[in-house]
Amino acid sequence: MPTSSEPADSVSPRPILNGFLGLPTFDATHIQAQFNQVDAVIIGLPWDGGTTGLPGQRHGPEIVRKFSPSLGFSLDSESHLHGVRDPLSGAEILGRRQIFDLGDLGGIPLDPRIDRASYYQIAQETAYRAARIASVPVFIGGDHSVTAATVTGVSRALEGPLHLVCFDAHCDVGPVSESVTNYGQLTHANFVNYLATTGSIAGADIVGVRAPLPGSHFPLPKGVHCRSSATDLPDMDAPTFLSIDMDVLSPEAFPATGHPEPGGSGLTELVQEVNSVCSIYNIVGIDIVETTYSDRWSEEAGRTVAALLLATLRAVFGDN
């Protein structure tokens, strides 16, 4: 970041270590100027304008930032991480990687339902830019509607449709009779319909679904499959976006989410399934969504999402 004595357009060789997990923070323009392409960037999307239930998901990035542990990363002269150590295996996690926290897309709005389509469009452009400067852009939501924008942006940057692997207790397709073709119609409950209709995805596997659907939601969009476990996933070479809705966990494991469903797994089981997905798919984008503000559970929620974020980055980059 520029110091008071540097011109505004100068590039700092050393980012500041104070982002998610204690990762370095940097400005996207500076990253683009200084590096050809980095390994990952992380962006918060404080948005709940797409929820059809109780709001509060706008606080997700704030909660994770506040309660994310600072793991003591350090940087070499080329802004590569000196990784942290797994105490069990001794393996270095994220060592030699270039991973930066770019901050949040906008502050927490007073009324996020104002001009909803504009926020999604800006989120799409942000995702497009992030996918141009990083191998794996990562987004912390926010309600699940933001996935429509982030997947669309990444798909555009890679110039082709993506495959979507989504961990979710719900199959967010919306009624068949309600075609979702623009951001003004978008909600967290129909974003898969939007992505399938607009061609940003060629198919989707939704893993962990346990909420029943009314008959009005069938047949599912072409190429969309609901699965109980990641062990059912087919092998696939297509570039894949990984989306994790925190309600895939049981309410006992993660109560701070907007639409909890009985049943579900714990964090350990989810991490194992994420490891499996990352080992066989070409992951080109990630989001973790639907963390909701709670007077009682926010600290636990923030730490849980932070642990999942670290585990997912570790799996994507093969730091075992």
Would you give an account of this structure?
This is Formiminoglutamase. One of its GO terms (molecular function) is agmatinase activity. Keywords: Hydrolase, Manganese, Metal-binding. The protein is of the alpha/beta class and 320 residues long. It has a single domain, classed as Arginase, Chain A (3-Layer(aba) Sandwich), CATH 3.40.800. It has helices spanning 28-34, 60-67, 116-133, 146-158, 191-198, 267-280, 298-316, and strands at residues 16-17, 24-25, 38-45, 74-75, 81-82, 84-85, 92-93, 99-104, 134-141, 162-167, 201-207, 224-227, 239-245, 282-289. The strands form four sheets. The chain has an eight-stranded parallel beta sheet, sandwiched between helices. A two-stranded antiparallel ribbon has the order 1-2. It has a two-stranded antiparallel ribbon with strand order 4-5. β1 (16-17) and β2 (24-25) form a beta hairpin.
Oligomerization: single chain
What is the CA–CA distance across the termini?
32 Å
For the record, the CATH architecture stands as: 3-Layer(aba) Sandwich
Radius of gyration: 19 Å
CATH superfamily: Ureohydrolase domain
CATH topology: Arginase, Chain A
Shape: globular
The total domain count is: 1
Biggest β-sheet: strands ordered side by side in the sheet: 8-3-9-14-13-10-11-12
Structural class call reads alpha/beta
Largest sheet: 8 strands, parallel
What's the rounded overall pLDDT mean? 92
Q: Briefly, what is this?
A:
The chain is α/β, with parallel strands linked by helices. It contains seven helices and 14 strands. The protein has helices at residues 28-34, 60-67, 116-133, 146-158, 191-198, 267-280, 298-316, and strands at residues 16-17, 24-25, 38-45, 74-75, 81-82, 84-85, 92-93, 99-104, 134-141, 162-167, 201-207, 224-227, 239-245, 282-289.
